[in-house]
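Question (not urgent): is this output format expected?
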Amino acid sequence: MYTIKYSEIISNVPNRFDRLNSSDTEQESWTIDFNGKKDWESGVHLDFSVNQSRNSKNNYGLFTETLLNSNDPGFGGYPSFEQLSSDRNDGQFEAKIDFTYGAKETGKVEWGLSTRTRDIDQNLYTELDSTTNGWVDNSNLENQFIFEDVVYSAYAIYAKSFGVIGMQAGLRAEDVYTSSNLVNDTTTYNNDYFKLYPSFYLTYQLNESTSLQASYSKRVNRPGFYQLNPFPEYSDPFNLRMGNPYLNPEFINSYELGYSKYAKGTTLSASVYAKDLNNMQRRFIEVDSTNVSTVTYRNLNGSFDVGIEFMWSKQVSETFNFMISSNLFHSQMDASNLTNEFDESTFGMRANFNMAYKKNGQKLQLSGWIRPGNSVGQGRMETMLSTDLAYSRPVLSNKGRLTLKISDLFNTRRFGIDTSGANFDKSFWYKRQSQAINLSLSYNFGDQSNNKQRSGGYRDSGGDMDGGFF
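Got this back:
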């Protein structure tokens, strides 16, 4: 359960709405994995895997909204109620085959093929009520959205060492077919494309513990299911959210220079980087004449980011270690294809820490992160921070492990933003039920060393700056 509070400015008269959202979710899933490997006398090594999974999730939400008079915050108008339920079914099939031959000293070659198919089907149902004390079906606010995508890919990597210099070059080819369908209006959206993703890494070993690195890579950030669904989500009648079926993938060219030093119990790494983003995906807010805002997704021309990263970890003793890391960056966005209202230049930062105490197989860990507030196009985000605590110990003759985790220990995780445009100013914050206690038990039935992610496997990259709140 979480609460959303925000204020609007209408004809210079502030109005405050309190909105309480509560939800229950039922989820079932299954996964079948088949994998194997083979070695030939010639030195060729083969890994292959086949994976099939299905997931179904039913969600029920109750939303209560009350208008509060700004001159008397204790005065509440008649509350309105809304029930929002959804049924979602996801399926994925993935098959990969990877070959490896040689060693870095003489030349190592990796190559492989993979295919991945996904299908997602979601039905959304809405019922409304204000003062009638009865629920009314609203078919105009119901929709079914179906999304399917198929990715065929092939890759090759060559790596070789030349004394103190090491290099690795790779190329990945992807053929992608996507289809999405809003069933209610029989509209189908297709986006098929073929792309090449090169990569190059160069290392120079200054001594046994110190090295320099240089790299270039191209990757893709594909839009997700909710970013594509064009039907508005009416869980908040004053702040609608909807996807954009015409949203294109975001392509990132990354350049990096790095320094690494390893000493007894200590690791230090630092780097400077630049990222050239094309078709940058960004949330875009518009407000209509009835003061209802709509948040959707658009492709900006792009952005150019430069930044520095560092990471320091230290084994203080046999039982205690810590790690701190930080990323500081400057982003220059180009949104001239959409509007001139974006704050095109912004600075940002994120920092992480991790401390762990280990003894006799037991482990106590404290971790957290902070992201100071910064500009994000049409607005400015508030500072976000969170801390987690976890404890684990071996059980069942060391074949099992019991883990207790407390997330958001101090209940600080929330998302807030101030947004503005030519005809609106809006401030709101979201606070989900972020505090939770999780108890889990894992058991090892055998050797799990083969269950690893191959370098040629499918990877979807990218992430949201709001931590999934917005």
